[in-house]
TrEMBL record:
This is Suf domain-containing protein. InterPro entries: HAT, Rna14-like, Suf, TPR-like_helical_dom_sf. Residues 732-766 are annotated as: Disordered. One of its GO terms (molecular function) is mRNA binding. It is found in: Nucleus. Its main location: nucleus. It comes from Panagrellus redivivus (Microworm). It comes from the Eukaryota. GO terms for biological process: mRNA 3'-end processing. The lineage of its organism: Eukaryota, Metazoa, Ecdysozoa, Nematoda, Chromadorea.
């Protein structure tokens, strides 16, 4: 039994708050309890998984079963626009239709809810039920008067046309229903605003009928005329839609193939990097690319954009912790807005632009609240639209909610500098400097802002000096300070800072090595011969222990430049020099980041003893390889593979040849799991035998006498068949030969080539044993 099945779901959630299986077990238990006691659990559930539509649906349905309609509606308002889950929307529409659909004053509200659902989730491949319910709802509405009847027919036709233009399951049923609808619905007389009724020639034709016919047959004649016209019109309307319908069916088949394997019921959890998770990401990306290719061949950019955006929203229901999906969706929103504005569709562009802002807000207030990347993207979007107050609030909220706000402070400082100038940005730097959560990076950012924007190296140097007092032992800060001094051509201060750091008693080993390297690089490029030799000598004395007195390594450090080395890479590896990657990617400047310079074991890695052949490549040791042996049947002492076996190693084969055959052991059989557990839990010391002590034959061991035990033991030894005798017997050889022959051929094991000639008398000199073996042999012959 696995540990996961033993630990309670509550305990599993304590260990891993995203254990979906444990949450599902608790959900199953809570669904059977009264809602008053289960409500606390449901709130925890939807708080932990805020975009899980099926969890919201379970919560709401539990409230509805308890007839808590007000609470259910409040829950719908909390989630219905944030979670575009098709089953959740179906539940919402079903609730409205049952609770308020029969109320005349609420029918318009229910119709608006259906329109909203079609606009939000009507592009889903499983949205057919929503269209059918909406059509049925409109059909059940009683129309008063000819105008109302025409409006009803027009509304139903509009829903049908939207449905048959959407690739979704069960579209064949909707298409057939639409064809039937056109055939039976056009018996209604055209209204005053209908094109047919307004036609002047058609009106004259009706007047002529009224003059010719009597009053009794006039209405019948008019009805026959309209019926003939409407049948032709219905056939024409259906025929115009057939081609588009066939194309929609083709797109539906392509979507079904692409959606095979997509788990739409998966719950968003933090990325784990599993193969199954990556497969889901790839499948969703393929579906998104398919929707971007405009498979419906729509000329309307807004319709194409809605389908792609909806696909992104569905992917985020399962991949809500993947920041790249959120950002790609937002970028697509902005791309569509730009395209719509070029086409002059400003209204739709403004709508999608508002949706972009809502998308960012939904991400930063939900699953991406601990991901600064999306916060920065949101602030950048608001800045591009000129909404500076909203962007500032985004940065401030991120600073307040983050344990390490250093990066947020730096981004806010850059943002304030862009919109208000350096003076306002200094206030942000002052605020960040007073925040105890900030790290040394804020001093580097502030100093570089002063240096590049104000062009004042003195202010920048003062900021570095102030930061050096707090973070002088941090390699990254010291490196940045020295880089700054080097670039402003202040060699004297550069030497002073390096010497001050090297004299510090708190300097770390890593920073000490880095500072000596920087010092040597500085003197190599700008120093004279005396100062260079002085620094080189002092460096050798300080790092001699770290370099293990290998003087050639000091020489390499002195005569290298960027990624140019004074000897080959293989030679440096054999020397034990491990700084090859330090400057290999450097393109300018004498320094690089210290991160990754040294291995965790220390400055130098031990020289590997590599046996290089003439070809220059290491080769495996073939002395321990065993030759493959073709065989039709594998024996227990070999490793079976397809078509043959690999014999056991020599030492193992030697031991197996001396073990008795497996068929000679009839038990007792030991359960190795129980045996290992017993040995693992055994804490007592094993008994120790005193071989020097003698045992009196008259003594007793428990209830047995020593004399009786000795006698039985000697009799057991003398009556037990010797394995050598069993191997030497002719009958044993015949049995093995028959057994292996029945199995498909003789055994080709090397162990069967041993010499088994001889008799039992030659194998042992004991007369009693020879007599007992003779009896055994006679008994076996009688049985055969």
């Amino acid at each position: 039994m696995s540990n996961a099945s033993v630990i309670s779901p509550e305990r599993r959630i304590e260990f891993n708050a995203f254990d979906v299986d444990a949450w599902n077990l608790l959900l199953r238990e809570s669904s059977a309890r009264p809602i008053d006691t289960a409500r606390i659990f449901y709130e925890k559930l939807v708080t932990q998984f805020p975009n899980a539509g099926r969890y919201w649906k379970a919560y709401i349905e539990h409230e509805l079963r308890a007839k808590n309609y007000d609470k259910a509606e409040a829950l719908f308002e909390r989630c219905i626009f944030q979670v575009l889950h098709i089953d959740l929307w179906k539940s919402y529409l079903h609730y409205l239709k049952l609770s308020k659909g029969h109320i005349i004053s609420m029918r318009e509200k229910v119709a608006d809810a259906f329109e909203l659902a079609i606009d939000r989730v009507g592009h889903d491949i499983q949205a057919a039920q929503i269209y059918q319910d909406y059509i049925q709802f409109l059909t059940d509405v009683e129309a008063q008067g000819q105008y109302a009847e025409n409006q009803k027919v027009s509304a139903i036709r509009k829903v049908y046309l939207r449905a048959v233009a959407t690739p979704m399951l069960n579209i064949e049923t909707i298409w057939q229903a639409y064809c039937d609808f056109e055939k039976v619905s056009l018996h209604v007389l055209p209204s005053a605003d209908n094109d047919v009724r307004n036609d002047q020639h058609f009106s004259l034709f009706l007047n002529r009928i009224a003059q010719i016919c009597s009053y009794n047959c006039k209405e019948l004649c008019i009805l026959l005329v309209f019926q003939s016209v409407n049948i032709n019109l219905a056939e024409k309307l259906v025929a115009d839609r057939v081609k588009d319908y066939q194309h929609v069916k083709k797109v539906l088949k392509q979507m079904e193939l692409l959606m095979q394997g997509i788990n739409r019921q998966a719950i968003s959890v933090p990325p784990r990097g599993t193969q199954a998770e990556q497969k889901q990401i790839d499948l969703w990306r393929k579906l998104i690319v398919f929707e971007k290719s405009n498979p419906l061949r729509s000329d309307e950019v807004g319709l194409k954009a809605k389908r792609v955006i909806y696909t992104y929203d569905q992917a985020l229901l399962s991949l809500g912790y993947h920041a790249d999906i959120w950002y790609e969706s937002a970028v697509y929103h902005e791309k569509i807005v730009a395209e719509l504005r070029e086409r002059g569709d400003m209204k739709t562009a403004e709508t999608i632009e508002r949706e972009t802002s809502k998308l960012y807000s939904r991400a930063t207030s939900g699953l991406m609240r601990n991901t600064p990347l999306i916060h920065f993207a949101h602030a950048d979007f608001e800045e591009s639209k000129g909404r500076y107050d909203i962007a500032t609030k985004i940065y401030d909220d991120l600073i307040e909610s983050n344990d390490d706000p250093t990066l947020a402070y730096i981004m806010l400082m850059n943002f304030i500098r862009r919109i208000k100038g350096v003076r306002a940005a200094r206030k942000v730097f002052e605020r960040a400097r007073g925040d105890k959560r900030s790290k040394f990076h804020i001093y580097i950012a502030g100093a570089m802002m002063e240096f590049h924007c104000i062009k004042d190296s003195n202010i920048a140097q003062k900021i570095f000096d102030y930061g050096l007092k707090k973070y002088g032992n941090v390699p990254e800060f010291a490196t940045a300070y020295i880089d700054f001094l080097y670039h402003v051509n202040d060699e004297n201060n550069t030497r002073g800072v390096i010497e001050r750091l090297l004299e510090s008693p708190d300097i770390s080993n890593e920073l000490k090595i880095e500072m000596w390297d920087r010092y040597l690089d500085l003197e190599t490029q700008v120093g004279d011969a005396a100062s260079l030799r002085k620094v080189d000598h002092a460096r050798r004395q300080a790092l001699n222990e770290a370099y293990d007195d290998r003087q050639a390594l000091f020489l390499v450090d002195r005569f290298k430049f960027l990624n140019l080395w004074p000897c080959s890479e293989d030679q440096m590896k054999l020397m034990g020099y491990n700084k090859i990657s330090r400057l290999s990617s450097t393109t300018g400047g004498p320094t690089t980041s210290t991160q990754g310079h040294f291995m965790s074991q220390g400055l130098l890695r031990t020289t590997q003893q590599v046996n290089l052949e003439i070809s220059g490549f290491p080769r495996p040791d073939t002395n321990q390889m065993l030759a493959f042996k073709p065989a039709s049947r594998a024996t227990p002492s070999t490793h079976p593979v397809s078509g043959g076996v690999f014999p056991a190693p020599r030492s193992v084969s030697f031991m197996l040849q001396r073990l008795p055959p497996p068929d000679s052991f009839c038990g007792p059989f030991v359960d190795h799991n129980i045996l290992m557990d017993a040995l693992k839990n055994f804490t007592r010391e094993p008994p120790k035998a005193n071989y020097k002590a003698s045992v009196d034959v008259n003594d007793s061991i428990g209830k047995y006498k020593v004399a009786d035990l000795k006698r039985e033991f000697q009799q057991l030894v003398t009556t037990t068949t010797d394995p050598a005798v069993l191997y030497a017997s002719e009958e044993y050889r015949k049995q093995r030969k028959r057994r292996h022959g029945a199995a498909g051929g003789p055994n080709d094991s090397d162990s069967e080539d041993e010499n088994t000639n001889g008799t039992a008398a030659e194998a042992t000199g004991d007369v009693f044993k020879r007599l007992m073996n003779a009896k055994v042999k006679a008994k076996e012959q009688m049985q055969t």
